[in-house]
Amino acid sequence: xKQSFFCVLEGIDGAGTETxxxxxxxxxxxxxxxxxxxxxxxYSGPIGQIIHKFLHKExxxxxxxxxxxxxxxxxxxxxxxLDMIKNKKVVIADRYIYSTLSYQSFAKxxxxxxxxxxxxxxxxxxxxxxxxxxxxxxTSMKRKYKxxxxxxRHEADAKFLKKVREGxxxxxxxxxxxxxxxxxxxxxxxxAKNIQEIVISKLK
Length: 204
Known about the structure:
Layout: E1 5-10, H1 17-30, E2 35-39, H2 46-55, H3 63-75, H4 78-86, E3 90-94, H5 97-106, H6 112-121, E4 129-134, H7 137-147, H8 158-174, E5 179-183, H9 188-203
Parallel strand pairs: 1-3, 1-4, 2-3, 4-5
Helix pairs in contact: 1-9, 2-3, 3-5, 5-6, 5-8, 7-8
Protein backbone atom coordinates (compact mmCIF):
# COMPACT_ATOMS: atom_id res chain seq x y z
CA UNK A 1 0.00 0.00 0.00
CA LYS A 2 1.45 3.34 -1.02
CA GLN A 3 0.71 6.45 1.04
CA SER A 4 2.79 9.52 1.77
CA PHE A 5 3.09 10.18 5.49
CA PHE A 6 5.80 11.68 7.66
CA CYS A 7 5.66 10.77 11.34
CA VAL A 8 8.11 11.87 14.05
CA LEU A 9 8.65 10.23 17.44
CA GLU A 10 10.12 12.58 20.04
CA GLY A 11 11.13 12.36 23.68
CA ILE A 12 13.89 12.94 26.19
CA ASP A 13 16.65 10.34 26.55
CA GLY A 14 15.23 6.93 27.42
CA ALA A 15 11.71 7.74 26.19
CA GLY A 16 11.82 4.79 23.80
CA THR A 17 11.77 6.53 20.42
CA GLU A 18 14.16 3.99 18.85
CA THR A 19 12.22 0.96 20.10
CA UNK A 20 8.85 2.43 19.19
CA UNK A 21 10.04 3.50 15.71
CA UNK A 22 11.02 -0.11 14.96
CA UNK A 23 7.75 -1.49 16.36
CA UNK A 24 5.71 1.01 14.36
CA UNK A 25 7.60 0.11 11.18
CA UNK A 26 6.90 -3.60 11.72
CA UNK A 27 3.23 -2.88 12.43
CA UNK A 28 2.75 -0.78 9.28
CA UNK A 29 4.68 -3.18 7.05
CA UNK A 30 2.33 -5.97 8.12
CA UNK A 31 -0.44 -3.75 6.79
CA UNK A 32 1.48 -3.48 3.49
CA UNK A 33 2.68 0.12 3.86
CA UNK A 34 6.14 0.95 2.53
CA UNK A 35 8.07 2.32 5.49
CA UNK A 36 11.47 3.97 6.01
CA UNK A 37 13.13 5.08 9.27
CA UNK A 38 15.49 8.02 9.67
CA UNK A 39 17.28 8.50 12.98
CA UNK A 40 18.86 11.57 14.59
CA UNK A 41 21.58 12.12 15.52
CA UNK A 42 22.88 9.97 12.65
CA TYR A 43 25.99 8.58 14.32
CA SER A 44 26.98 6.69 11.16
CA GLY A 45 27.76 9.96 9.36
CA PRO A 46 30.53 12.55 9.85
CA ILE A 47 28.29 15.14 11.55
CA GLY A 48 26.88 12.50 13.90
CA GLN A 49 30.39 11.43 14.84
CA ILE A 50 31.24 14.99 15.88
CA ILE A 51 28.02 15.11 17.93
CA HIS A 52 28.97 11.81 19.58
CA LYS A 53 32.33 13.26 20.62
CA PHE A 54 30.58 16.33 22.02
CA LEU A 55 28.13 14.20 24.03
CA HIS A 56 31.02 12.23 25.53
CA LYS A 57 32.92 15.43 26.42
CA GLU A 58 35.71 14.97 23.88
CA UNK A 59 34.71 18.28 22.26
CA UNK A 60 33.07 21.46 23.55
CA UNK A 61 30.72 23.73 21.57
CA UNK A 62 28.52 26.73 22.32
CA UNK A 63 24.71 26.20 22.18
CA UNK A 64 24.67 27.95 18.78
CA UNK A 65 27.25 25.55 17.33
CA UNK A 66 25.45 22.61 18.92
CA UNK A 67 22.19 23.69 17.30
CA UNK A 68 23.93 24.06 13.94
CA UNK A 69 25.47 20.59 14.16
CA UNK A 70 22.29 18.78 15.17
CA UNK A 71 20.15 20.68 12.66
CA UNK A 72 22.62 20.26 9.78
CA UNK A 73 22.58 16.52 10.46
CA UNK A 74 18.91 16.67 9.38
CA UNK A 75 19.39 19.15 6.53
CA UNK A 76 21.73 16.65 4.85
CA UNK A 77 18.75 14.25 4.51
CA UNK A 78 16.24 16.83 3.28
CA UNK A 79 16.15 15.63 -0.33
CA UNK A 80 16.14 11.97 0.70
CA UNK A 81 13.12 12.47 2.98
CA LEU A 82 11.28 14.48 0.33
CA ASP A 83 12.04 11.75 -2.22
CA MET A 84 10.63 9.05 0.06
CA ILE A 85 7.49 11.12 0.64
CA LYS A 86 7.19 11.73 -3.11
CA ASN A 87 7.37 7.97 -3.67
CA LYS A 88 4.45 7.52 -1.28
CA LYS A 89 6.29 5.96 1.60
CA VAL A 90 5.62 6.31 5.31
CA VAL A 91 8.68 8.00 6.81
CA ILE A 92 9.26 7.54 10.54
CA ALA A 93 11.82 9.87 12.16
CA ASP A 94 13.37 8.68 15.42
CA ARG A 95 13.69 12.28 16.65
CA TYR A 96 13.80 15.34 14.44
CA ILE A 97 14.37 19.11 14.59
CA TYR A 98 12.09 19.41 17.65
CA SER A 99 14.73 17.63 19.72
CA THR A 100 17.19 20.32 18.71
CA LEU A 101 14.73 23.04 19.68
CA SER A 102 14.08 21.39 23.04
CA TYR A 103 17.67 20.58 23.92
CA GLN A 104 19.56 23.55 22.48
CA SER A 105 16.90 26.30 22.59
CA PHE A 106 14.68 25.68 25.61
CA ALA A 107 17.29 23.91 27.76
CA LYS A 108 20.48 25.69 26.69
CA UNK A 109 19.34 29.15 25.65
CA UNK A 110 19.85 29.23 21.87
CA UNK A 111 17.15 31.67 20.73
CA UNK A 112 13.98 29.85 19.73
CA UNK A 113 13.23 32.43 17.04
CA UNK A 114 16.60 31.70 15.44
CA UNK A 115 15.90 27.98 15.57
CA UNK A 116 12.54 28.50 13.85
CA UNK A 117 14.23 30.71 11.25
CA UNK A 118 16.72 27.92 10.54
CA UNK A 119 13.85 25.50 9.87
CA UNK A 120 12.27 28.01 7.49
CA UNK A 121 15.49 28.95 5.67
CA UNK A 122 16.43 25.34 5.00
CA UNK A 123 12.81 24.40 4.32
CA UNK A 124 12.93 21.21 6.37
CA UNK A 125 10.12 18.77 5.50
CA UNK A 126 7.13 19.23 7.80
CA UNK A 127 5.81 16.08 9.49
CA UNK A 128 2.14 15.15 9.31
CA UNK A 129 2.30 13.97 12.91
CA UNK A 130 4.63 14.34 15.90
CA UNK A 131 4.20 11.92 18.80
CA UNK A 132 5.89 13.00 22.03
CA UNK A 133 6.62 10.11 24.39
CA UNK A 134 6.46 11.81 27.76
CA UNK A 135 8.54 10.39 30.63
CA UNK A 136 10.04 11.94 33.75
CA UNK A 137 13.78 12.68 34.09
CA UNK A 138 13.89 10.05 36.85
CA THR A 139 12.50 7.38 34.53
CA SER A 140 14.89 8.54 31.82
CA MET A 141 17.97 8.06 34.00
CA LYS A 142 16.74 4.75 35.42
CA ARG A 143 16.25 3.36 31.91
CA LYS A 144 19.59 4.63 30.62
CA TYR A 145 21.49 3.18 33.59
CA LYS A 146 19.91 -0.20 32.86
CA UNK A 147 21.02 0.14 29.25
CA UNK A 148 24.60 1.27 29.92
CA UNK A 149 26.86 2.44 32.72
CA UNK A 150 28.50 5.37 30.95
CA UNK A 151 25.84 8.04 30.45
CA UNK A 152 26.56 10.98 28.16
CA ARG A 153 26.46 14.63 29.33
CA HIS A 154 22.72 14.94 28.64
CA GLU A 155 21.59 11.55 29.96
CA ALA A 156 23.34 12.06 33.31
CA ASP A 157 21.83 15.47 34.11
CA ALA A 158 18.34 15.30 35.67
CA LYS A 159 17.94 19.09 35.94
CA PHE A 160 18.83 19.47 32.28
CA LEU A 161 16.40 16.71 31.25
CA LYS A 162 13.65 18.49 33.20
CA LYS A 163 14.24 21.63 31.13
CA VAL A 164 14.20 19.59 27.93
CA ARG A 165 10.93 17.94 28.88
CA GLU A 166 9.40 21.35 29.64
CA GLY A 167 10.64 22.53 26.24
CA UNK A 168 8.91 19.65 24.52
CA UNK A 169 5.66 20.45 26.31
CA UNK A 170 5.89 24.06 25.11
CA UNK A 171 6.45 22.86 21.56
CA UNK A 172 3.40 20.59 21.89
CA UNK A 173 1.35 23.75 22.51
CA UNK A 174 3.02 25.77 19.74
CA UNK A 175 2.47 23.01 17.17
CA UNK A 176 -0.72 21.66 18.76
CA UNK A 177 -2.42 20.70 15.46
CA UNK A 178 0.31 18.22 14.55
CA UNK A 179 1.38 17.01 18.01
CA UNK A 180 0.09 14.24 20.24
CA UNK A 181 1.46 13.69 23.76
CA UNK A 182 1.28 10.14 25.12
CA UNK A 183 2.38 8.54 28.37
CA UNK A 184 5.75 6.94 27.71
CA UNK A 185 5.95 5.55 31.25
CA UNK A 186 3.67 2.64 30.36
CA UNK A 187 4.83 -0.82 29.26
CA UNK A 188 6.44 -0.98 25.81
CA UNK A 189 3.51 -2.97 24.40
CA UNK A 190 0.95 -0.46 25.69
CA UNK A 191 2.86 2.50 24.31
CA ALA A 192 3.25 0.72 20.96
CA LYS A 193 -0.48 0.01 20.76
CA ASN A 194 -1.28 3.64 21.57
CA ILE A 195 1.09 4.88 18.85
CA GLN A 196 -0.25 2.40 16.31
CA GLU A 197 -3.85 3.44 16.94
CA ILE A 198 -2.98 7.12 16.52
CA VAL A 199 -0.95 6.60 13.33
CA ILE A 200 -3.39 4.22 11.64
CA SER A 201 -6.24 6.66 12.32
CA LYS A 202 -4.27 9.33 10.45
CA LEU A 203 -3.51 7.00 7.55
CA LYS A 204 -7.14 6.12 6.86
